[in-house]
Amino acid sequence: MRSQPTCPRCAGPVHAPSESSGGWRCGLHGEVDPLRPAYSPSREGLSGVLRGAAVPVWLPWPLPPGWLVTGFAAAGDERSGSRGCVVALTGPNPVGGQGEMLIIAEELGVGLGARFAGLDGPDPGRDFAAGPVDASVQFGHHDVPLWHVEAPNRAAFAGEVMASWLWVVLWPDTAGMLLVEPLALRDLRDGGQVPDLPYGVMSPHLPG
Q: How many structural domains are present in the chain?
């Protein structure tokens, strides 16, 4: 049986819209964009997350050496489209062992990035971007600054691009070394850019 949607902020159950409620609701966080069960790491999964995506579907391209795409997720419904999108990846940690990465794009207030970073959320926090830039990614011919966000037992970075939050969350925290050099990102909504992706086993960090 396919899993049910959950709250993008706390992973709790959500109630579908009704005559008295115009949207999906979490008992703790009120009206939310439901986080649907993860899409498989496959061409079909990619097609699923792209369908109705209202925010970028980010992918580092070329992928870091040895890294694989390990699933996709999205928050939203048929009416609003996906207001948050996640791409999961797995590969060698630069300092040894295996690393896991989630790249998240979301509209303000959705709460996906904060959830995966282990924060109360929904956004990076009051003191976000108060200090110097800690890392960056590249999109097109532009550098996008990222700031480190304090997160438990993982490395988390956040910035803003194309009017949406961009989060990069990595396990373990040492995998944050991947951002010593800027990652070049592609928005997979722009067709024809990445014909064949290498896929691995579904990420344990994705819902359902």
A: 1
Residue 9 forms part of a structural domain: no
Inter-residue contact 35 to 112 (CB < 8 Å): yes
**Domain boundaries, position 45:** 35-187
Burial track 134-148 (b if 16+ CB lie within 10 A, e otherwise): bbbbebeeeebbbbb
- Single out the residue of 83, 86, 84, 119 nearest to residue 103, CA to CA: 86
Cβ(110)–Cβ(163) below 8 Å: no
pLDDT of 73 reads 97
pLDDT tens figures, 145-177? 999 999 999 999 999 998 899 999 999 999 999
Given a cut of 50, the residues of the chain with pLDDT beneath it are 1
Residue 47 domain-assigned? yes
Name the pairing type of β-strands 25-26 and 98-106.
Answer: unpaired
Side-chain-side CA neighbours of residue 4 (13 Å): 10
The DSSP 8-state label assigned to residue 101 in this structure reads E
User: What confidence score (pLDDT) does residue 140 get?
Assistant: 86
pLDDT at 1 (0 to 100):
36
Question: Residue 57 burial (CB < 10 Å; 0-12/13-18/19+)?
Answer: buried
Burial of 45 (0-12, 13-18, 19+ CB in 10 A): buried
Whole-model pTM: value is: 0.94
Do the domain assignments include residue 2? no
